[in-house]
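Quick sanity check, Reverse transcriptase domain-containing protein:
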Amino acid sequence: MSFIIIGFYRPPTANDTFYDEFADILKECDHNKEIIIMGDFNLNWEDKSKRRKLKVITDKYHLEQLIKGPTRITKCSSTQLDLFFSNKPERITKTYNLITGLSDHNLTLVARKLTSKRFKINASASRHTNVNCIPKSKQETFDNEINNLDWGDILSSENLENSCQLFTSKINIVRDKHIVKNKRKNKNKVNLPWFSEILWQLMKSKDAALKKAIKTKRDTDILVYKNLRNKVINELRLAKSHFFLKLLNDAKGNSSEIWKSINSLLGRAQHHTEDIQLTVQGQTIDDNAKIASIFNSFFIDSVQRLGNNFKTGEQLTDLNVAGQGFDLVTVTEEEVKKVICSLKNSKSKDVSHQDTVFIKKHSTTLIPPITHLANLSIIQSFFPPHWKQAIVTPIFKSGDRNIVSNYRPISILPVISKIVEKIVIDQLTDHINSCNPGLDSAQFGFTKHHSTETAILHLTEQIRLGLDKGGVVGAVFLDLSKAFDTVNHKVLLSKLSNVNLSSNTLAWISSYLSDRRQCVKIKDADSSYLSHNAFTFYEPKWAPEARCLAFLPSLSGSPVLWGQVFSKADPFFFTHRRSPRLSPDVISHCTSRKKNDDLSMLVLCRSPHSVDNVDRFVHLCHLVQSNSTQKLNHFCSDIFIHFFLFPLIRRHHRCLYLS
C-alpha cells in the first residue's frame, strides 16, 4: 500500500501563477497511486466563481473535494477555505469539520480506510496490562493486618538470616491473602502537569460560547466568548508559570531533578515495558525467558572477561587489620525512622515484593523489627544472603536495539538492605571525613560542598599556575571501559584498611560485598540467579563512595597507591602533601557518562614518564581502557584561554574534561 500526500498553503495575496504551479506539481505525480491533497487554499470553495480555476485542474486529475461546510466562521462571513482532495474518495471513510476554538479556522479531520481486518487481539492487549494489586475495598483490612503483626519472635531471635526470612514471609502471607490479578487499562497520560480540572471546565465553557456565538451572531454572545477566551489564555499562562517556579524551587539547585522533569515533559522518559528482541548468532529471539537469561549471562560474563585480564593474586596491599579502629555502632529506632523517611518513593518491587512506598506507609509498625535486624547485622559483622539478591532490568543505551551489548543493567535491591546500607554508609562517611588520613581535599566527586564547578575551577587554576611558572602542562585523557561494573573488591578493601577501620567493620564490608546474586526480569519472565564475582559492583547506595575510593588516588598518606603508582618527581604545579612517598606531579579528575557506563579521567602530568605511571595506576586498580587508547594533550596560554576560561565563562564546564 502506497499513496502520495501533498500539503498546500496558498497565501491570500497569491496571484494566478499559483494555479500554473499547482498544475505542474500534479503533472509530476504518479496517477496510478492514490493522491491526497490538503491545506488552506484561502479561496472560498462554496463560491463557484472563485473556485472555477482550481476546480478545472482538480477535475482534470479526478480529484474530489471531501470537506463539507464552512471552515472559517466570523461575525460577518462563513467561508470554506480548508480543503481536502482525493482521487480515491471511496477509501475515505469519514470527514470531520469541528469547531474547537484553537484558531479562527475549524479543525478538519479525515479518516482513511487502511484495512478491512481489525486486529482486535493486539489492540486489546496493548490497552490493558495484567497487574497484581490489592483492591481499594481490601486496602483498609490489609493495612490493619500489617499493623497488628506480632514481631516478638523476630525481636527475641539472634539468628539474622532466619529473622530476615521470617520478616519477609510474615508480610507476604498477609499480602497474598488480599492480592488479586486485575486487568488495568493503560492510560495515556496528558503531558501537561499544569493542566487542572478547573482549566478544563473553563475551556469547555469557552468552546460552548464559541458555538453559540457562531450560531446566533449576536454581539453579546461574541463578547462572552472573547472574555472567556482571554480568561483561558491568562489562566493557562499563570498555571504554567506557577508550575515551573515550583519545579525550580523543589529542585533546590539539583540539576538532575530539573532535567528529569524536563525530559518527562518532552516525552524522553524511559519506558521499561517495551518489547525487546535480540539477535544472537543470526537468530532473532523474542521469548522473554530466553532474553532474560541472555541478558543475565552477558552482564555477568562481560565483567568477568575484563577481570580475567588481571592476575588473581595481584593486589595493592594486604589488609591492615591490626590494632583498634573505627567500629560500626548500633542504631536507635529514631535513627532508622529518619533513614526510612529519606528514601525516595518508588513502587519498583524487589525480590520480596516490597517497595519503599510500602515501607514508608507502614513504618510505625515495621521500624522495631528493621532496627533489630540492622543492629544484628552490625553486631555480627554479617550481611545476610537474603539481602544480596537483586532484580536487574536492562535499559537501552543507544545503537541497535537487537544487540545485547547496547543495554545496561539497573538493579532493584531489597528495600531493607537499602536501609541498612544507608545506616552504615552514613557512619563510614562521617569517619572518613574526620579521620587522618581521610579523603583528600581535592576529591570533588560524590563529596559534600564539591561539584563540577569547583573541580573545573581547581583544574584551570593548576593549569594557570603551571603556565605562569614557565612549564609545559600535559594532560592524559583516559576512557575506562565498564568502570562502574568493575570496582575490584580487593582493591576497595585494601584502601579502606588504611583509614583506621576495625577488623569487625572490614568484616562487615567484606560480607556485604561477597556472594551477591542477581536475576534479570523481562516483564513476567525471570532468569535463573547467577553470582557476581570479585569485580562486579551494582550496589546503588555504595557505588558513589566505592568509585570515589577505588578509582582515584584520593586517600591522604596512602603509600600503597601513591608510592607504587606515581613517581617521586619534584613538585611542578600541584602538591597534595610534602612526603617522599607522594607524587605531586600528577593530579587526576574523573567524571562519568551515565549513558554508556564508561568513566573518563583527565590526568595532568609534568613529564612523559608520568604517562607510564598512569598506566600502572590503571592496571593496579584493575581498570580497562576503552580500545586501549590514551589521548595526550598539552596546554599553552592561548589554548588555556580559548578552551578553558572562555567555556567556563559560558558555563559549558560540564564537558571540559570528558574525553
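Posting the structure with no commentary besides this: The chain has a mean pLDDT of 76.
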